[in-house]
Design a protein that fits this description.
Layout lengths: L14 H14 L3 H31 L6 H9 L1
Helix pairs in contact: 1-2
Length: 78
């Protein structure tokens, strides 16, 4: 048995989703499991971007009025 550094999970797909993954894998010349992994990575990145975007918007809403460059420079050079 060949060991792998990747962990495995079992998922259940609808027939339609399985068919789409197989078609995309054939198109890209990769195994369906590899294509499914790539699609999952892309989805996780999108989810992460959404969460980080929400955090950024929340921080922007909490910000007080800005300061002038002159005041900021004075604070940095003290």
């Amino acid at each position: 048995m060949i060991s792998t550094t990747n962990s495995r999970i079992h998922i259940t797909l609808s027939k339609e989703d399985k068919s789409i993954i197989i078609k995309l894998a054939k198109r890209d010349g990769v195994m369906p499991a590899h294509k499914a992994s790539d699609l999952l990575k892309a989805a996780l990145e999108l989810e992460e971007d959404t969460v980080l975007g929400d955090i950024a918007v929340s921080r922007l809403k909490k910000r007080t009025r800005g300061t002038t460059f002159k005041k900021a420079w004075q604070m940095l050079t003290k």
